[in-house]
Write a structure and sequence with these properties.
This protein is an alpha+beta fold and 441 residues long. The protein has a domain of 53 residues. The protein is built from 3 helices and 38 strands. The chain starts with 10 loop residues before the first strand and ends with a helix.
Length: 441
């Protein structure tokens, strides 16, 4: 048109010197000089001049171009950080470099690729920095992969439900000290250490336990592993019968033997019937009562294989078993029996009298004489002691009676002695008349 000036209400296109009634495709009206100026090439219509290639200020895009919802820019295809929605490019979640659609939330971002130094979860298509709850970073493909559901943090994929590889448990779960697995409650083979809320190992023989073992004989089990049996007193589990215990088949509990038994059949009936099978070291087993002693008890002798065997029925103690020559007694079971020292036999007195054994009669008489002598000696000693105390008592009574008389007599004796002394003094005084007469003569 080669216009120099446009008609009223028309605007000049500065490039062609043509006049138009308002905004036209590819141009915008500059309100400063009211001229139609070129839009950015990607824009079919625009509001103003493009700030840069990121902010084009487009209102409508060229054909087959897509308009960004936030920067008013047009692109021929989907660009990073956006996804296509009809003719628009809408913003992905900030962590996505590319995405398939709008993020549902911060957990489901629908990312296809992550921003720099962010890593994608394999299940939620979300991108995060390294170290997020419920995931671990697989260094092979640099993706976040799911931990076991019981882990809040983990080092790698769970091997199985026994080896979860947890680093930290979900709330209200407890971690095992050795398998890095998390559980809601105490599980088999573990007990809860309440000092640090860690599930620690029971003794291998315990299926359940209340605490760590004190030693190999005090395991603190609550329940045993299969085919193991618990001791009644030490709460320990063993495979069958063990030393110092027997297996009670009624309740399948290992119960203590008598202290003298190494192995036993059942609980002791008494200290005389211990129900032992084998004895403790340096103890001997009786052949009939299944009891163990560290000495040779009455009515027994120590036989072969260190077995305590029964003496003959009339012996209280014996040297060995009865044979054709002797009963081997050392003493008899009661006073009803007579002990024959030469044959080491114990024979009833009545049976011995029937035999009219002279030796027995002599011995019997000898014992009677000894008894008489001891009895008489005892009577004499008793009589002498009684007489001694009787005389002593009489002397005391006499002394009590004589004391007043002795005092009176002593007093008289002192008075007489005094009178005699006075007489002697009188006799010793000089006679005044006698000496004068002698001088005159």
């Amino acid at each position: 048109m080669n216009c120099l000036k446009c008609q009223p209400n028309l605007y000049m296109l500065e490039e062609t010197e043509s006049c138009y009634e308002g905004e036209i495709d590819n141009y915008y009206l500059d309100k400063n000089d009211y001229k139609l100026k070129r839009c950015y090439k990607n824009c079919l219509r625009c509001r103003t001049k493009a700030d840069n290639i990121t902010f084009m200020n487009c209102v409508v895009c060229q054909k087959n171009y897509l308009l960004t919802e936030d920067t008013d820019s047009c692109y021929p295809e989907v660009i990073d950080a956006y996804y296509k929605d009809d003719i628009y490019l809408r913003k992905c979640h900030k962590n996505c470099l590319q995405c398939s659609s709008k993020a549902t939330n911060d957990t489901y971002m629908n990312c296809i690729r992550c921003q720099y130094k962010l890593y994608m979860t394999e299940d939620t298509q979300s991108c995060y920095e390294e170290g997020i709850d419920n995931y671990y970073l697989d260094k092979n493909d640099f993706k976040f992969k799911k931990c076991h559901k019981n882990c809040l943090r983990c080092s790698t994929k769970a091997t199985n439900d026994t080896y979860m590889n947890c680093l930290k448990c979900q709330p209200n779960l407890f971690m095992t000290e050795d398998t890095q697995s998390c559980y809601e409650d105490v599980i088999d083979n573990y007990y809860l250490d309440k000092n640090d809320n860690i599930l620690r190992r029971c003794h291998p023989n315990c299926l359940k336990c209340k605490s760590a073992q004190e030693d190999e004989t005090h395991m603190n089990c609550l329940k045993c592993q299969a085919n193991l049996y618990m001791t009644k007193d030490t709460e320990s589990c063993y495979e069958g019968e063990i030393d110092n215990y027997y297996l009670d088949k009624n309740d399948f509990i290992l119960k203590p033997c008598h202290k003298n038994c190494l192995r036993c059949k059942s609980s002791p009936i008494s200290d005389l019937e211990m129900r032992c099978k084998n004895c403790q070291p340096k103890f001997y087993l009786t052949e009939d009562k299944d009891s163990c002693y560290d000495y040779i008890p009455d009515n027994y002798y120590l036989g072969e294989n260190d077995i305590l065997r029964k003496c003959y029925k009339t012996c209280f103690n014996c040297l060995g078993a009865k044979n054709s020559e002797t009963m081997n007694c050392l003493s008899c079971i009661s006073d009803e029996y007579f002990y024959k020292n030469d044959t080491k036999d114990c024979i009833l007195f009545k049976d011995y009298k029937k035999r009219s054994d002279l030796e027995f009669t002599k011995v019997n008489n000898y014992n009677f004489y000894i008894f008489i002598i001891i009895f008489v000696a005892a009577l004499i000693i008793f009589g002498s002691v009684c007489a001694f105390y009787k005389i002593k008592e009489q002397n005391k009574k006499m002394e009590r009676k004589e004391q007043p008389e002795q005092k009176e007599e002593k007093k008289k004796s002192e008075e007489n002695k005094k009178q005699d002394e006075n007489k002697e003094m009188i006799e010793l005084k000089p006679d005044l008349k006698g000496p004068i007469n002698d001088d005159t003569e």
